[in-house]
């Protein structure tokens, strides 16, 4: 008779079976909540259209994805339409969630497999919203992963620009963050953006740069 902490083999099998039932239920719930989270972050129109195998930049993103997930290097994506950049950000967001939840999934832990535990580790901002937050709040607590869409579309005033410079500097000086930026600017325009040289040089130093399509 197999014994583990005073339990018989049959009792252990019952516990495993019950845990599997709990995990299967949590897994279904996880996917529902995850889709709702995507809709909240990116909007229902984009999520309805989203298909992983249709993401134009998928193969290029996959080539540098581990650097991002391990927070070794960030990622800047340019050169595709706004819609396609958003699809790329949804793809990246999903991959981050799957990466963060991998241990709970592997060990079928129904209590840890909770989408909100992982979603709170990712912040998503459009550039105008980020600059608005910096204007209002002065500084922002930085999540382990930060996604910024459409950098270059923001309205910039000196005070907020200074706060954004500090925001990027904090990311630059740490190895604790995974940064993703989408932009309409080509690499040349991004690198040589007037008045932004210090920031863009910092970003290019710590981020892989993917230029996709014809812009």
What would the keywords be for this entry?
215 residues, 5 strands, alpha/beta, 10 helices, five-stranded parallel beta sheet, single chain, elongated
Strand order within the widest sheet?
2-3-4-1-5
Taken as a percent bin, the fraction of beta residues is: 5-15%
pLDDT < 50 runs, ≥5 residues: none
Instruction: Classify the helix fraction into a percent range.
Output: 55-70%
The biggest sheet amounts to:
5 strands, parallel
Please explain how this structure is put together.
The structure is a single chain. With 215 residues, this protein is an alpha/beta fold. Helices cover 57% and strands 13% of the residues. The protein has 10 helices and 5 strands. It has helices at residues 9-42, 44-49, 58-69, 82-100, 102-106, 115-119, 127-137, 158-172, 187-191, 197-206, and strands at residues 74-78, 122-126, 145-151, 178-183, 207-211. It has a 5-stranded parallel β-sheet. The mean pLDDT is 85.
Summarize the topology.
Elements: H1 9-42, H2 44-49, H3 58-69, E1 74-78, H4 82-100, H5 102-106, H6 115-119, E2 122-126, H7 127-137, E3 145-151, H8 158-172, E4 178-183, H9 187-191, H10 197-206, E5 207-211
Parallel strand pairs: 1-4, 1-5, 2-3, 3-4
Helix pairs in contact: 3-4, 7-8, 8-10
Gist of the model:
This protein is of the alpha/beta class. The protein has helices at 9-42, 44-49, 58-69, 82-100, 102-106, 115-119, 127-137, 158-172, 187-191, 197-206; strands spanning 74-78, 122-126, 145-151, 178-183, 207-211.
């Amino acid at each position: 008779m197999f014994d583990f902490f005073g339990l018989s083999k049959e009792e252990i099998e019952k516990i495993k079976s019950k845990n599997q039932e709990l995990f299967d239920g949590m897994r279904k719930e996880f996917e529902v909540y995850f889709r709702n989270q995507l809709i909240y972050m990116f909007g229902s129109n984009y999520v309805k259209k989203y298909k992983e195998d249709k993401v134009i930049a998928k193969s290029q993103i996959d080539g540098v994805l581990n650097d991002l997930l391990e927070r070794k290097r960030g990622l800047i994506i340019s050169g595709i339409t706004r819609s396609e950049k958003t699809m790329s950000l949804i793809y990246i967001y999903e991959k981050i969630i799957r990466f963060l939840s991998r241990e709970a999934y592997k060990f079928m832990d129904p209590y840890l497999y909770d989408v909100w535990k992982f979603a709170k580790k990712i912040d998503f901002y459009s550039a105008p919203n980020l600059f608005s937050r910096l204007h209002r709040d002065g500084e922002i607590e930085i999540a382990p992963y930060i996604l910024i869409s459409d950098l270059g579309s923001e309205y910039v005033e000196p005070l907020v620009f200074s706060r954004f410079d500090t925001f990027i500097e904090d990311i630059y000086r740490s190895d604790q963050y995974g940064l993703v930026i989408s932009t309409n600017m080509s690499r040349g325009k991004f690198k040589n953006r007037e008045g932004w040289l210090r920031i863009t040089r910092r970003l290019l130093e710590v981020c892989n740069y993917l230029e996709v399509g014809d812009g």
